[in-house]
Amino acid sequence: MSTGSRKEVGDQSAGHSPQTKRKKVAAKRKGLLERLAEGPVVSDGSYCFVLERRGYVKSGYFTPEAVVENPDAVTDLHKEFARAGADVTQAFTFYASEDKLAAQGNTAAADFGVNNINNEACRLAWEIADQYGTLVAAGLSPTPSYGEGKGKTAVQQEFRAQTDIFAKHDVDFMIVEFFSHLEEMLWAIEVCKEIGKPIAASMCIGPEGDNDGNTPGQCAVAMARAGVDVVGVNCMFDPSTSLKTMKLMKEALSEAGLKTYLMCQPMAYHTPDVNKFGLAAAPEYPFALEPRLLTRWDMHNFAREAYELGVRYIGGCCGMESYHIRAIAEELAPERGGRLGEASAKHGLWGETLKGSLRHSMTIRCGKAYWSKPPATGRPFSAPYSTPLACPK
């Protein structure tokens, strides 16, 4: 596997010395497992969808070469999530395996290389983590090699090209996410264990289970037995559906006598009408999803329900903006020692800042009772549900 001969923009020659600097930082910060033992950990939100809307990620590919092409855009988004109250800064390494960077005519592998992209993603994440005290996570995601049936050795070679870089940058923990095949997930976990970091593993599944017929409970038990520290789901389904899946996972883990932390990072869109493939089956995906968007108040409710279910790693996936993450942090502030992000200084819980308006019509809109009412959509000719595609590819 080639890793590119171009200059490594994010390596130590660019002024980043992870082996020394990281040890100094780590001595002052609690790790993931320590934080989870104390209470809920708030993760960050969406990179692919948010940066696509802002003009930095190409839809279809959804690969992260923006870390090299437009690093300021990625850093700004990292900062938004940190200011919102996130405890985690996830390096933008989603779909950053070399086979994905070269798939379907994508030139990111040839133009930048897997080394450059993953190095720079880690460097940018640490830049914000050093400023805000967040934890740095790096992630693995599904590979085209698995879908093409190239086998375990080839797939793990793709993963290892990334984890070797993550180890060099001394990330705080690993996230293995968006997998809809349990087998590939377990292969990824094996590679992550080689670098000795805590592992958070989340399947991209709903209550019907993965694409091979494994139930959510079977997935959870298999991941826990593989040695991960946090188990859960992310993406393709809304909070309500994701929490149904989490309940099934929790029950199966309990029945098997296994104890792990639970994580949940749903999409920012309502999905009551989708099939087992999630929002990707909706005809509005990915360019006309705004009518389905969750409000900040929906996120308050999600955070509370997730916490009461026993989920302790709580955040968002595709479509989740910084205000969604701020809502999670604000809802869970009592469980986090009253800690809020910087952005909450300009917000106020449940619209309390509206008390400063000169208009009476605004001041009466303060409080949870007002904002708990379902909002109107303003789209009288839109159907409430759509007909999902039978078998999206």
Short summary of the structure?
This protein has 393 residues and is α/β, with parallel strands linked by helices. It contains 17 helices and 8 strands.
Rg over C-alpha atoms, rounded to the nearest angstrom: 20 Å
Q: What gap, in angstroms, lies between the N and C termini? A: 27 Å
The total strand number stands at 8
**Total count of helical runs of at least 4 residues:** 17
SSE pattern: HHEHHHEHHHEHHEHEHEHEHEHHH
Name the structural class: alpha/beta
Instruction: Give the CA-based shape.
Output: globular
Strand content: 5-15%
Strand order of the largest sheet: 1-8-7-6-5-4-3-2
Helical content band = 40-55%
Mean pLDDT: 93
SSE blueprint:
Blueprint: H1 18-26, H2 32-38, E1 41-42, H3 48-53, H4 66-69, H5 71-84, E2 88-90, H6 98-101, H7 108-111, H8 114-132, E3 135-140, H9 144-147, H10 152-168, E4 173-179, H11 182-193, E5 199-203, H12 216-225, E6 230-234, H13 239-255, E7 261-265, H14 296-309, E8 313-314, H15 322-331, H16 360-363, H17 368-371
Parallel strand pairs: 1-8, 2-3, 3-4, 4-5, 5-6, 6-7, 7-8
